[in-house]
Amino acid sequence: MKSAILQTATRYLLPILLLFSFFLLLRGHYYPGGGFVGGLVASIAFVLHSFANGTENTMKILRYKPLSLIPIGLGISAVSVTFPLLFGLPPMTGLWFEEPIPVIGMIGSALFFDLGVYLVVIGVVLTILFTIALND
Asked: Could you list the residue ranges that cross the membrane (predicted)?
């Protein structure tokens, strides 16, 4: 669909949706939200751009194939899960920095786990949808 209205709206909505998805990611280890929901919102932003401008143009924005995000996200999540083992703690134990970061707040292993989930969700959703779109 090559609608001028949708293309113009997408130009403004893409950065807003990506910022909102990042907000959901950062909020997730304190309140509802997190990597899964944030990843879905980011995926929706790119799918909306794909509807307005075509899948090829959206792939140019991403620079890398979405499939490459999956192992990166799995690696980040796996490291955050096993990192407490280095301190003699059980896996998935929350480790937190002593001082909060001004805008973000407390940073800990839960945030890195959420970041891994965020990347995996974006990679899976966009790989599936772009594969379907390119094969039509």
From this structure: 12-30, 36-55, 67-89, 101-134
Q: What share of the chain is helix, strand, coil (3-state, %, to 5)?
A: 75, 5, 25
Residue 82, φ and ψ in degrees, nearest 5: -90, -10
The residue type found at 129 is L
By residue count, the chain amounts to 136
pLDDT, one tens digit per residue, over 54-78 is: 999 999 999 899 999 999 999 999 9
Q: Which residues contact 129 (CB under 8 A, 6 or more apart)?
A: 43, 47, 50
Instruction: Give the distance from CA 98 to its chain's centroid.
Output: 26
Compute CA distances 94 → 21, 51, 85, 101, 112, whole Å: 23, 40, 11, 17, 10
Which of the four pLDDT bands, split at 50, 70 and 90, describes residue 45? very high
46 neighbors 124 (Cβ within 8 angstroms)? no
Q: How far apart are CA 73 and CA 95, in angstroms?
A: 19
pLDDT tens-digit map of 89-101: 999 888 888 888 8
DSSP code at position 67: G
